[in-house]
UniProtKB/TrEMBL annotation:
Residue ranges constituting the Putative Flp pilus-assembly TadG-like N-terminal domain according to the UniProt record: 14-61
InterPro entries for this protein: Rv3654c-like, Tad_N
Alphabetical UniProt keywords: Membrane, Transmembrane, Transmembrane helix
Biased composition (Gly residues): 116-129
Species whose genome carries this gene: uncultured Nocardioidaceae bacterium
Transmembrane annotation, as ranges: 18-42
Stretches the record annotates as Disordered: 112-144
Protein name: Putative Flp pilus-assembly TadG-like N-terminal domain-containing protein
Length: 144
């Protein structure tokens, strides 16, 4: 059959809208993944800085005759990290700290394996089990 002059058949009207919505959805997913990676990097740096400062505070406390792990825990709390372990061997203090990172994709991802299976509840942005835990270790002592 031939079309009559002046009468157009609808071809693919509205397909640009579908492609536009799909493209915007893809951009949102990429942005959320990038935000999650950025949050993990910030959490890693926070944990590393907290561990370094806590270990240095512990080593300084040894030289001043105070208990090193008490001072290290105080400084860890001030840096919004949770001190998991503190060990003194002679003049050297080793600390392990952790902090929570809440993924930008949503807190529900942190609860995929069950409540309370992830996270430390350090107050860094989420409730226990709402994100990923980033740990760091540092060691400090006198320079030989």
């Amino acid at each position: 059959m031939t079309a009559r002059p002046g009468c157009r058949r609808p071809k693919e009207q509205g397909s640009a809208t579908v492609y536009g919505v799909a493209f915007i959805g893809l951009l949102v997913v990429v942005a959320m993944i990038a935000a999650t990676v950025a949050a993990l990097l910030v959490g890693h740096r926070r944990a590393a800085a907290g561990a370094d400062l806590a270990a240095l505070a512990g080593a300084s406390a040894i030289q001043q005759g105070r208990p090193p792990c008490v001072e290290a825990a105080r400084l860890a709390r001030a840096n919004r990290v949770l001190m998991l372990r503190c060990v003194r061997r002679g003049q050297v203090v080793t600390v392990v700290v952790a902090t929570d990172v809440v993924p930008a994709i949503g807190p529900a991802i942190g609860q995929a394996t069950g409540p309370g299976t992830r996270g430390t509840g350090t107050g860094s942005g989420g409730a226990p089990g709402s994100g990923w835990t980033v740990r760091s270790m540092a060691r400090a002592g006198p320079v030989a």
